[in-house]
Design goal:
The chain has about 350 residues and is an alpha+beta fold. The chain folds into three domains: about 180 residues, no CATH class; about 90 residues, Cyclin A, domain 1, CATH 1.10.472; about 80 residues, Cyclin-like (Cyclin A, domain 1). The chain is built from 14 helices and six strands.
């Protein structure tokens, strides 16, 4: 039974840099520095923050085993060429399509363990280059911990955590086995989420989404797709048809959906069903965003006046969110509102506002 996963961590990838860009790859495809000698202060940043106790999350691709609290994550440092430590996963979340795995404590091994030293699992000796993650069982985990030189109370505590991870893994297998025998039909699924959708978006939106969903079902567009993602893609189509001023990224954040997958389903459905979705009205966006910005009714009306003036000068190709945000900025700038603050509320960048202002000027 697999209770742990070894993750290959590369200190010069986006994971280590926490989103920053490498300054040494602008003109060359090959790194000019030997392993471990990169002068960039962001090199190996994630691992250094973990050791200092500042970072308690890992955010790679989706690893299904780590969805279960209590599972164990081991880090293989690709530049040190060894497993350098482990952590027990206590939580999992998805934010904008990215998976975050949370842990309380990272145990750094006294002796890093090269894969070549592990004999219980022959697969590990054969791992080269592009492997990303590999699941391991209790026996392999125990051997790695022995090779790492763990002793005393720490070793006993980790053994207890491994026992708890085995129990959690068994329960997860049992849950999945039970789910196999329950056939979830579209009718059962829609009934299960009806109240939540109606409370969030209203009965009209739910009925319109259901109509589109059954049309897609009739045309065979749902085959091989997850019911949940397909239905929520049809719900977004329904919301847009009814004039809801909500961007797809914002919609996915509210419902904890993967943006990339939802966008793909949404585009395929409107293309194959021949549905024309009206553009989002910037005026409606302003009215929705007025509350979080604390705008008065007079300020909203003033922003709409700016909006009508701007529409005469804009030919097309500009996001309605950018147009609405720029109108609000022109309204509130004398009250001290910054482009950064307004851009954050509207889900765009300050550069978008500045570029539109230049065009208008």
């Amino acid at each position: 039974m697999k209770i742990a996963v070894i993750i290959k961590y590369n200190p010069c990838t986006i994971h280590a840099r926490l989103g920053s860009k490498c300054p040494y790859f602008d003109t060359t495809r090959h790194c000019p520095y030997p392993l471990g000698e990169c002068p960039d202060p962001n090199y190996d940043l994630w691992y250094r923050k973990v050791l200092e106790g500042e970072m308690k999350e890992y955010y790679p691709f989706h690893i299904r085993l780590l969805d279960e609290p209590g599972s164990i994550m081991l880090i293989y440092h690709s530049h040190k060429k060894a497993i350098v430590g482990e952590a027990k996963i206590i939580g999992h979340r998805v934010d904008n399509g990215r998976h975050y795995y949370r842990f309380e404590e990272f145990v750094a091994y006294p002796k890093p363990v090269p894969l070549e030293m592990i004999y219980v699992d022959e697969r590990l000796k054969k791992l080269r280059r592009r492997w990303i993650a590999v699941y391991i069982d209790r026996e392999t985990l125990d051997e790695i911990r022995e090779l790492a030189g763990l002793k005393g109370d720490l070793k006993k505590r980790l053994e207890r955590e491994a026992e708890l991870a085995e129990i959690a893994a068994k329960k997860a297998l049992e849950r999945r086995a039970r789910r196999k025998y329950v056939k979830i039909t579209p009718e059962i699924f829609i009934k299960s989420i009806e109240n939540d959708i109606v409370n969030r978006f209203g009965q009209e939106a739910f009925e319109e989404a259901k109509k589109i969903f059954y049309l897609a079902l009739e045309k065979g567009l749902t085959k091989g797709r997850d019911l949940r993602n397909t239905f929520y893609a049809t719900l977004y189509i329904a919301l847009r048809k009814l004039g809801f001023p909500i961007a797809l990224w914002e919609y996915c954040e509210q419902l904890d959906l993967e943006l990339k997958r939802t966008r793909k389903y949404y585009r395929q459905l409107i293309t194959n069903l021949g549905i024309k979705v009206p553009p989002i009205d910037p005026e409606e966006i302003i009215r929705v965003k007025a509350e979080p910005l604390g705008m008065s009714e007079n300020a909203v009306e003033k922003a709409i006046v700016y909006l009508e003036t701007m529409r005469k000068s804009i030919r097309g190709g500009v996001s309605p969110y950018t147009i609405a945000a720029t109108a609000v900025y022109l309204t509130l700038k004398d009250e001290g509102a910054t482009q950064e603050k307004i851009a954050k509320v509207f889900g765009i960048t300050p550069v978008s506002i500045r570029n539109l202002l230049k065009t208008l000027s």
